[in-house]
């Protein structure tokens, strides 16, 4: 909707024009003024797009108003109304960029012609703005992705003031709380981007653009020297703008703010990096919607260690029905959220995926194959969709509860329970000379029936199960010790190192020496 201001010292003329235009073209919001001074006051307060003004008025006339608009508000379209004897006078006003004029008396055809011209001008400008906006957003995204040329980068930053202090900000929207991350809504991002951009005018010169794929809005604000000199005023202004934006929004909105840059245009990449770092800390501070780079530090350089050990301990607790023990190890694993420096959110999620995978793999060798363990792919998607560390921990806890339920169901099965006891025995004695017949006799089974039952419950043959146990323990020794391969081979139950090398390569795709080198240890024959 555009706003049209009608200015005339004749009330009947103003009311008539206002009524006709307002009724026939509802796209226009109509304002009225009785003289040039009142009109200028409205122009200062209201977002006016066009002015329809009479030339002859008491005091300052319409030509003076048109000249002032041309000099101080050049985007506003001006149309003059002239009497018969003032036609040439009206023509002279064209040098003040008056777009057209009406000659009294004004008929409906005259109004239709003028309104059609205004609509054409507004529509053309809107298309140009949209085209320019799309082009600049393309440049911004190329700049963000590091694919912009030096010439285009100079073009992108040319309109912005040099040597002026300012800040970068990143708005990020939390996805709906669900196990499956919702698709981003481009129209919502564009709507919020427009609202945010309009509100940032309170800070001074600003620029913002939306990135719907990442549910983010990037923005820069150049501050005047007086505002930049005082930290509290501009942070208060930003907070108020954010609160108005977030009010009524269904999705949680987070705001990351860079430190004040003495010269924002020159420091734009670093400033945006700071704002991104700040907003990404929302993963650990989900109750803090506004995050300042000055109040957060960099993320930890390396991933946490001990994931394998934690997975083995949790799997052991699940096998033994020790819920308290499993929760204790889980709490210890997620203790990285208690104090900075925190790991990168994506690293925390990946470590949780590795933890869960380690638990599942350990349970697959220690529980029954017929147990319906949760899909690894589904678990990975769930962890990656977590919006906060607390949510990540909660999702892992729910999957852990499901593992306990499945393990308890297995223990209630009599034959399954016997196979579980057999598996526990094999984990403790895998390095000994084991045979299916000796195990069948120990658990009072016919060897043939025991062989079928073991495969039914575990999913693998007895000999393959024992071989897999030996290879897994050999891998652990190769990773953690410098013992000779021949000694490791014997220690895990192989009587022939050549056969060990052959079986190890069959299961892992590489020789023991190559596996050891890949894990950072030198070859030991």
TrEMBL record:
Chain ranges of the HTH araC/xylS-type domain: 420-518
Record keyword Cytoplasm present: no
The entry's keywords: DNA-binding, Phosphoprotein, Transcription, Transcription regulation
One of the record's GO molecular function terms: DNA-binding transcription factor activity
A biological-process GO annotation: phosphorelay signal transduction system
Domain Response regulatory span(s) in chain numbering: 3-119
Coiled-coil stretches: none
SMART domains: HTH_ARAC, REC
Modified residues (4-aspartylphosphate): 54
PANTHER family: ARAC-FAMILY TRANSCRIPTIONAL REGULATOR (PTHR43280), HTH-TYPE TRANSCRIPTIONAL ACTIVATOR RHAS (PTHR43280:SF28)
Protein name (record): Response regulator
